Amino acid sequence: MLSQEQFKIMYNLQQKLNDDTNGKDWVTTGITNKGRKINWFRCIYMEATEAIDSLNWKHWKDINKDNDIENIKIEIVDIWHFIMSEHIKIQGLSEAVQNSFDLYHLIHDENKEIIHSMQLIECFEIIIKKSINEELPLADFFRVVEKIEDFDMIDVYKLYIGKNCLNQFRQDNGYKEGKYQKIWDGEEDNVYLQTILKENPNISYNDLYNGLKEIYQIQP
């Protein structure tokens, strides 16, 4: 099970990334240092729709296409970024960490039921509906994670650390200004991230950052 310290690490990293990206007043003003209004709820439901689109749900084409489970995991971690951001805004950093840890333990103790893809879509739709209504879908998020085969919050933690590193790398290389190159040799940078993490499951944050930097520097 995920520890309270691991929740604290993720929330602190998210706070730092948001401070670096949006300026340190984002919590109180809801506006970036570039004057743009922040809507974390919209971020949540947009990522949830991308997760749905990684499942084979369309009745009119590609009916034998496999679900892209690996990308769904990445989208789940993206959703987690934005849930934490809104949670920090609502409750403050320390209370958000405690609340997440307590709620996670309650839900983790429920029966873990693996569900098929159409049921998973319905779970994502609950997250979307609640986000549109500006309700933090924290419990619903934990339940989605619990319902995916061979996946849990420990995996979310590992992927989050990696994705946070990638997001920081993107920001350091002009992502916000539109200068960053997201496709590397025909594949999205997320794919390279997952490859590095699979090959080096215990890689440090700094080594991961340097590994991404090394690959990025040889892009045409």
Kindly describe this structure:
This protein is mainly α. It has ten helices and two strands, in the order ααααααααββαα. Strands 1-2 form a two-stranded antiparallel sheet. Helix 1 packs parallel to helix 8. It is globular, with a radius of gyration of 17 Å. 31% of the residues are buried.
Q: What can be said about this structure in brief?
A:
The protein has 220 residues and is an all-alpha fold. The chain is 65% helix and 2% strand. The chain has one domain (4-217): all-alpha NTP pyrophosphatase fold, CATH 1.10.4010.10.
CATH classification, class level: Mainly Alpha
- Rg measurement, Å: 17 Å
Largest sheet: 2 strands, antiparallel
The CATH architecture designation is Orthogonal Bundle
Task: Count every helix, treating DSSP H or I runs of 4 or more residues as helices.
Answer: 10
List the secondary-structure elements in sequence, H or E. Answer: HHHHHHHHEEHH
- Assign the CATH superfamily: Type II deoxyuridine triphosphatase
Approximately what portion of the residues adopt beta-strand conformation?
under 5%
Q: Look at the structure and give the mean pLDDT.
A: 92
